[in-house]
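Teaching assistant's notes for section 4

Start the section by putting this record on the projector. Ask students to predict, before seeing the second block, whether Cysteine synthase will look compact or extended. Collect guesses on the board.
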Amino acid sequence: MIVNKNLKLLDLVGNTPMVALQRIPTNPNVTIYAKLEGNNPGGSVKDRAAYSMIKGAIDRGELQPGVTLVEATSGNTGIALAMMSSLFGVPIELVMPEDATRERVLSMEAFGAKVTLTPTMEGAIDYANAQVAKGGYLMLNQFANPDNYNSHYRGTGPEIWRDTEGSITHFVSAMGTTGTIMGVSRYLKEQNAGVQIVGCQPSDGSRIPGIRKWPEAYLPKIFERQRVDRIMEVSEEEAVQMTRRLAREEAIFCGMSSGGAVSAAVKLAAELSAGVIVCIICDRGDRYLSSDLFG
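Reveal the predicted structure now:
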């Protein structure tokens, strides 16, 4: 085996594999590719944004010695920030809704992060803002930070264009902070304005971790509606069933938001005469084993 002695952990962020679904698609004239972001070193697509945001804050002089990072997160961003903070030697407090799975809390704590739980995601955002107001804290604010979507403009988008050899016709992504869909949309539309960008939101009454239908007051500031050609709603049941199918039929072990995105991609494929759809598999399924997702 050849060992690259110059390879660092940060070099492993991005360039994730993309695989064609073999059994789930129903339209033989449409190929659905799944981009496996769980292959990032921290296990999710959020490694890209976390690295970009922390490095950006350091490069701009915003993150000084003695300052603690604080961030509201639904889970994956928190794990990624905890990992990156340990690499950069920066203390961090992460604030999450109390319904977050135990695996996520333990993962953050394993990297040395302090974890605070609040009743809701909106409450987590309010708590983080209050910490910043006290002084001594810096919030990277993934919901308003251009470094979030720029990580996908520089990385995820170009990788998709390269790996499909420019043949992509539709990009499908869950929408949480909206960083992934904003950055990928920017890049793909520059290459071909005809590529359709499709975002996924939960249907009314559905709870899908990682996908949000934001109240207007909490809508991410980085979100620009005109960059999304279509928004498809996905029910909680659809997301759960597709997540289970991905594991059992495609051997793709992922979380519920990824199941939601693939569910939308399959419905979209049924409408097309031909096409190449790429959807994001946000993370790995082992973060949900304490929930009833695979029960």
